[in-house]
Every structure is written in structure tokens, then in C-alpha cells.
Design goal:
The protein has one domain (12-265). It has helices spanning 5-18, 26-32, 162-175, 260-265, 282-301, 304-319, 324-332, 345-349, and strands at 44-49, 55-68, 71-84, 87-97, 103-114, 117-128, 131-140, 143-152, 182-187, 193-208, 211-222, 230-236, 242-247, 253-255. Strands 8-7-6-5-4-3-2-1-14-13-12-11-10-9 form a 14-stranded antiparallel β-sheet, sandwiched between helices. It has eight helices and 14 strands. Strand 13 (242-247) and strand 14 form a beta hairpin. It has 350 residues and is α+β, with helices and mostly antiparallel strands. InterPro entries: CATIP_N, DD_CATIP. It holds the Pfam family CATIP_N. Keywords: Cell membrane, Cilium biogenesis/degradation, Cytoplasm, Cytoskeleton, Membrane, Nucleus.
Length: 350
């Protein structure tokens, strides 16, 4: 008996993924190797609104130069948080990327709290010994599911993730052109290799801060093994700033309300003026400045600290646990290096 056409397609796609046959196009790989990352080092800040214009939350992206294990890289920190139908939800992405957007390490965190029931997803990926090692922890209520998988970097050429996608589209918009056959590989919810494609939407008039501006559109389509593809439409201003982001079919959209130049004017530096009698405390001030310089230098070398603490505090204030120390221990436990049971001093003392 002949199998239905839809089942055959699904089985074929599954077999291709299991056999690591899905690949990024040569055009996509060539595009990633030709980018100029210094052009995309700036921040975006949008609001999340409903179809009726109700403010539901915020979405922000920060990009800066950083270092990971003494290797220069791009550090991206993206965060969205808010409430839909009075249910708190949010997503945080921290990614370390090379100059051609190859992922060195990325941490993804998503949470939703509905009617007393919580959903929490964490996915951490890191390059190690020629492999991309991926650990995922999903918590639904009290039930915890853990998944781990690794893929050779040789089959992940042209990989795009939540973090690198944001920069990839920003760079396409700056060029005002999406080349043909932009087919990359990515990972689905079950950590299987799938395709993600990008195409050009053309120009569109958008209203930002009371002005009508021309924006360049990029469509991202995430393909799936079992389900229908998911499409995102993003529009960017001439300078690369994100102006609009929406998942096709969703009643929720992200929009830029004020032009970036106007927002930046609200954060002018205030000059520091020392009083004349401060000379009496020169020894104290010298030591204070020495400590400040040391702390600032360390924070510049490790910008991930700000992203990590911001995510932790947001989650802490959302949950409001009675035992803060136990909550902190459970929160940071996934970041601890793996150790065999015999290395645990508590286990040795039992």
C-alpha cells in the first residue's frame, strides 16, 4: 500500500536531518565571510504592542566588542519581556560571535507564567573540541526535562542562531540587498538541524517618532520537519536600526517609537567637577580612582557580567522566592562546570 505523500515527505526530511545532509548554501557561507562587523555595533530598543496598540513590553538588543577566553569577538545581548493576557513572559539571548558571525557560545532563556503554571526553557551551546555541544533544560511546572546533543562543526557551516540572526539581518539591511539563495542551517526545538532562509521584502513607509521614513524589509523563514514554516518580517532604517519586527500571523508586533538620535540625546554625559577642598582627601581619592579603573577595566573585558546579572535579577523579581540563596543556587547551577560525582566533597564525606 502506497504511503500518503505528506508522510513520505516528513520521513524523508527526518532522514535527511538524521544523516546530517542539510547544508547551508555556498552563497550564504560566502555572505557571512564578507561582512564588516564594525558597522553593526550599536543598540536597538523597541516596544511590544498588541493589534489595538496596547503596550505589552519591551525588546532591546545591545551589540559591542568583547572577549571570550582571550579571543576578540562580538557580544550580543538581546532581551524581550512583558506580559500577554496578564501572563509574564520573556526571552534573553547572550551570544559570543566571531567577526563572520560564527557562534562561539550562546545562552538562550525563555519563560512564560500562565495561571500559576510556569514554562522555563534554557539552551546553552558552546564550541568545544571541534564540536558544538548543546544542553537544553525545559521546566514545565515541577517537571524538568534535560536534553544534550553535539554536532561536528563541519556540518554546521553557515549556522545561524537566535543571536546571530539579529546581526545577520541588520547587516543585510545596511547593504540594502539580500543576495539570492540565502539558505542557512539552524536548530529546531528538538535540537535537530533544519534550514533557515532569508529574502528581501523591499521598501516600506513606516511612521517613527511622528516622521514617515523609508524602511528596508527582510523576511526570515524557519523551516520545520513536522510543522509549517514560521516567518518573520523585519524592517530596518537606513542606518541599520530595527524599526519593526513581527511574526507573520501573530497579533503582537515590535515597533520603534522614537528615532535613535533623539533617544541618545537624552543621555548626555554630565562633567564631573571636584571641589577645591577635595585636595585634603587626595590619598583617599587616588585609591578610589585606582579601584574604579580596575573595576571598569574588568567589566570592559567581561561585558557578559551585565547581561548575566540583568537576566538573574529580572527572573528573581518575577518569581519573588522566599529563599533567595536557594533560588540563586538553582539559577546558576547550569553554568557550573560538569564534575564527576566522586569529585564532589559532599559525596566523599558521606
Amino acid at each position: 500500500m502506497e504511503a500518503p505523500q505528506e508522510d513520505v515527505a516528513t520521513v524523508g526530511a527526518s532522514a535527511a536531518i538524521e544523516g546530517q545532509q542539510l547544508k547551508a548554501s555556498e552563497e550564504a557561507i560566502a555572505f557571512m565571510s564578507s561582512i564588516e562587523p564594525q558597522k553593526c555595533v550599536f543598540a536597538d530598543s523597541l516596544v511590544t504592542v498588541s493589534e489595538g496598540g496596547r503596550d505589552l513590553g519591551k525588546f532591546s538588543v545591545q551589540v559591542e566588542f568583547g572577549r571570550r577566553v582571550q579571543q576578540p569577538c562580538l557580544l550580543l545581548y538581546a532581551q524581550s519581556h512583558g506580559a500577554i493576557d496578564d501572563s509574564p513572559c520573556g526571552t534573553t539571548v547572550t551570544a559570543y560571535l566571531t567577526s563572520d558571525l560564527e557562534v562561539l557560545e550562546e545562552d538562550f532563556h525563555e519563560y512564560v507564567k500562565v495561571n500559576g503554571h510556569s514554562l522555563d526553557k534554557r539552551c546553552h551551546m558552546v564550541q568545544r573540541d571541534g564540536q558544538m555541544v548543546i544542553d537544553k533544560v525545559t521546566t514545565v511546572g515541577e517537571e524538568v526535562t534535560k536534553e544534550s546533543v553535539s554536532h561536528p562543526m563541519s556540518v554546521l557551516r553557515g549556522l545561524v542562531t537566535e543571536g546571530s540572526t539579529l546581526l545577520l539581518m541588520r547587516l543585510m539591511a545596511l547593504r540594502k540587498k539580500v543576495p539570492e539563495n540565502m539558505t542557512f542551517v539552524s536548530l529546531d526545538q528538538r535540537l535537530r538541524i533544519i534550514h533557515t532562509t532569508f529574502s528581501e521584502l523591499g521598501l516600506k513607509q513606516l511612521e517613527v517618532g511622528g516622521e514617515t521614513l523609508e524602511a528596508f524589509g527582510v523576511e526570515k523563514i524557519v523551516h520545520s520537519v513536522e510543522d509549517s514554516p514560521t516567518a518573520w518580517h523585519c524592517y530596518f532604517l537606513d542606518d541599520g536600526h530595527l524599526a519593526s519586527r513581527v511574526q507573520v500571523g501573530s497579533p503582537v508586533a515590535m515597533r520603534l517609537l522614537e528615532l535613535p538620535s533623539k533617544i541618545e540625546k537624552g543621555f548626555e554625559k554630565i562633567p564631573l567637577v571636584w571641589e577645591e577642598d577635595m585636595q585634603m582627601h587626595s590619598e583617599f581619592l587616588d585609591r578610589k580612582e585606582e579601584l574604579k579603573a580596575g573595576h571598569a577595566s574588568y567589566l570592559r573585558q567581561h561585558p557578559e557580567i551585565r547581561a548575566l546579572m540583568s537576566d538573574f535579577l529580572q527572573f528573581l523579581l518575577l518569581r519573588k522566592p522566599d529563599d533567595v540563596f536557594q533560588f540563586a543556587r538553582e539559577y546558576f547551577l547550569p553554568f557550573a562546570p560538569r564534575r564527576p560525582p566522586e569529585a564532589d566533597p559532599k559525596a566523599e564525606s558521606l
